[in-house]
Amino acid sequence: MDKLTDAFGLIGLMVVGGMAASRVNIITPAIININGVHVVFQDILNTLLPSLIPLVITLGILKMINRQMKPNTVIAVIFIVGVICSYLNILAVPAA
Predict the structure, then answer these.
(1) Predicted local confidence at residue 78, as pLDDT
(2) For residue 86, what are the contacts with CB-CB under 8 A and spacing of at least 6?
(3) What is the pLDDT of residue 5?
(4) How far apart, in Å, are the Cα atoms of 35 and each of 8, 39, 58, 85, 90?
(5) Are 26 and 54 in contact (CB under 8 A)?
(6) Which of 94, 96, 82 is nearest to 29 (CA)?
(7) What's the confidence (pLDDT) of residue 85?
(8) What is the DSSP string of 23-51?
(9) Are 29 and 92 in contact (CB under 8 A)?
(10) pLDDT at residue 54 in the model
(11) What is the residue-level pLDDT of the chain in tens, covering all 96 positions?
(12) Residue 68 has what pLDDT?
């Protein structure tokens, strides 16, 4: 029975991980110019690991929660970092 419970727990974690990758929709609009050739940084990230930015953001939020930060503090950090990264053209929400 313990093995069955562990298996269902593992399936649940996989579903939650997949949901985080599909629901957190953030890209980087950064373009790197190498010898006159424009390279889209998001394409490089997608080649290495699709949905890398949502994964990093989700793990960062999990780390803040594990450090016993209050929910309002976590929301404020997300808001402030999001505004700063958007203003500096580091992160963006893709057009619909």
Answers:
(1) 93
(2) 92
(3) 92
(4) 52, 10, 35, 26, 22
(5) yes
(6) 94
(7) 92
(8) H---B---EEEETTEEEEHHHHHHHH-TT
(9) yes
(10) 86
(11) 888 998 998 898 888 878 877 788 888 888 888 888 898 888 888 898 888 888 888 889 989 999 999 999 999 999 999 999 999 988 888 876
(12) 92
Long-range Cβ contacts of 56-64 (<8 Å, 24+ apart): 57/24, 57/26, 58/20, 58/24
Query: Contacts by 58-66 with C-beta closer than 8 Å and gap 24+?
Result: 58/20, 58/24
Q: Which two three-digit tokens encode residue 24?
A: 């957190």
78, amino acid identity: I
Tokens of 42: 């998001």
The one-letter amino acid code at 81 reads V
* Position 41, amino acid: F
Question: Virtual CA dihedral for 33, 21, 65, 10, nearest 10 degrees?
Answer: -140
Report the distance separating Cα 46 and Cα 29, nearest Å: 13
